[in-house]
């Protein structure tokens, strides 16, 4: 990951080939003492794990993709859970035939580049477990 630009409320980072985006965003959060953020990004990945949340079973169902995909859109937020950054991202991805897949991004390894813009928030957003949904919901 490379920091390209940073102010008090904005940052632009580039993830390079082989970088795990979720891990890099977590590292960025710790290294730059980010309280919380929203983000969006584009680029290309070569390995991807998407998840779909089965609300009835209260569990994620994962699907792995091991092919070059365009990151058409990836957006999310950064909050805190159990004193660790929690990156919550969703994305839409396109293959070489322009077929789209999308879902909750569990893992995304960059194949060419990933360009991400972060809106930094000067307030710590936390997550708390919710029994009704089985999810760690965002709180103020």
TrEMBL record:
Gene3D superfamilies for this protein: Hypothetical protein, similar to alpha- acetolactate decarboxylase, domain 2
Database matches in Pfam families: PCC
Domain PPC: 5-140
InterPro entries according to UniProt: DNA_bp_PD1, PPC_dom
CDD domains per record: DUF296 (cd11378)
Record's protein name: PPC domain-containing protein
Phylogenetic classification of the source organism: Bacteria, Candidatus Zambryskiibacteriota
């Amino acid at each position: 990951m490379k920091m390209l630009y940073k102010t008090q409320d904005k940052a632009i980072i580039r993830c390079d080939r082989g970088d795990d985006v979720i891990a890099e965003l977590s590292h960025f959060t710790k290294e730059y003492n980010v309280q919380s953020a929203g983000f969006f990004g584009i680029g290309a990945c070569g390995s991807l794990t998407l998840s779909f949340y089965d609300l009835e079973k209260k569990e994620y169902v994962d699907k792995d993709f091991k092919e070059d995909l365009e990151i058409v859109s990836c957006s999310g937020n950064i909050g805190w859970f159990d004193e660790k950054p929690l990156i919550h991202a969703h994305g839409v991805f396109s293959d070489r035939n322009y077929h789209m897949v999308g879902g909750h991004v569990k893992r995304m390894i960059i194949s060419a580049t990933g360009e991400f813009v972060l809106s930094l928030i000067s307030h710590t957003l936390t997550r708390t477990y919710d029994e009704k949904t089985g999810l760690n919901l965002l709180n103020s």
